[in-house]
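Dear support,

Our group has been running a series of protein-ligand predictions, and this particular one with iron/sulfur cluster is the one our PI (initials K.S.) wants archived with full inputs and outputs. We had some confusion internally about which version of the output was final, so please treat the block below as the authoritative record. The input we submitted was:
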Amino acid sequence: MNEQLQRCFSSAQLNGLQLKNRLIKAGTFEGMTPEGKISPRLQQFHERIAQGGIAMTTIGYCAVENDGRLNENMMYMHEGIRRPLAAMIESLHSLGTKVSGQMGHGGGFSKNRHLERKRPLGPSFGINMLGVTQGMLFCDAMSHSDIKALIKTYQRSAVFMKSVGFDCLEIHFGHGYGLCQFMSPKTNRRKDEYGGSLNNRMRLPLQILEGVRHSVGEHFPIIGKISLTEGVKGGLDYDDAIEIAKLLEKGGIDGIITSGGTSTMNPMIMFRGGNILQPMLKAEKSALMRLMLHLAGPKLFKDYPYEELYFLEQAKRIRDAVDCNLIYVGGASSNASFETLMQHGFDFIQLGRTLLSDPDLPLQAQRQQTYTSRCNHCNECVATIEHPAGIHCTRFSPEAPTILQ
Ligand SMILES: Cc1cc2nc3c(=O)[nH]c(=O)nc-3n(C[C@H](O)[C@H](O)[C@H](O)COP(=O)(O)O)c2cc1C
Ligand code: SF4
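Confirmed final output from the archive:
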């Protein structure tokens, strides 16, 4: 194995957290928390990934409050789930894997029918795209006291998540969710100190980072996922991402994950490969939602052919701009790609789809210099998010592993 791959498969530190290699499971909302409750399947899913040799797994989309859930089948961080959450994390630790929790908030994008507030809250009043089929047509603008409360909510969640055993927190700053809505000139039309210039739009995300840091202490790893581009006219773009990364670094973040796209406006930039419109139409049970998909789908789900390391060139610009840990995500599915990423100075690599198709990827890639994942980027797994069994690869079974030698 060459020097770069040796680096990839050797242990590394993330703000004092010892990771056995540089591969991290990307947050992929598992759809295994019916009515917000942790199912045994969620634990089994992550145990299977842990058995494959990943250094750290990420529990996808841990909403920081009830109203931060995109739907009522997501869990949110509260005492009611302490016991099963702690047991799951303990079990993953016993398999030698660290555990990160992705702190999420949907902002003004939600179809959660159990909201405590009248409407979902975002930076500005507008259409709640996700809620339309549930009759939840609009989202409201957050007041200053809502903003203060949200910072406290993130802090409360961070304290809970640290106490329950998470080794790392990943704040979601991307993909069009709550904090991204504040960062984006497309969705933030505020006239106060939280809107306007990029510095103003970054005010709340940075206050949240500061609050979370204060809550967990200097020596606890905090990483953040950003969108390099939102992929829509008038939205955040590649040049903004450089400034955003610099601000997050100045704000004390330990690592930045360079993703892209928005679930709300242009999701295919995030994935590349097979268009998810047809699989989603097939999976959708609501006739109204199917109609919406037929009408809005072609504009929302644009074609972006898959290419290996599709964010590399733009992520390299972030590498040049900041010194903090940089965590690459997006189409890293072979040892050749891991080698390239190590060569370009990335510190860690997050893997999404390849671990759904090949949970044993880390172990297998260590054994086989020419390793390439069998994932073909058809993206059918994306349409399984609301499947009763939760997300899964539709092509390959994790029970039929690729490790043969
Ligand atoms: C089924 C599925 C669910 C996902 N859910 C999330 C999520 O909850 N949060 C998130 O930040 N990204 C989510 N993603 C995006 C991945 O984290 C990752 O950014 C994307 O799949 C590209 O990486 P890959 O090429 O290694 O798959 C999801 C991806 C898939 C396939
Ligand atoms: S369904 Fe399987 S093969 Fe297709 S993109 Fe998802 S993980 Fe890869």
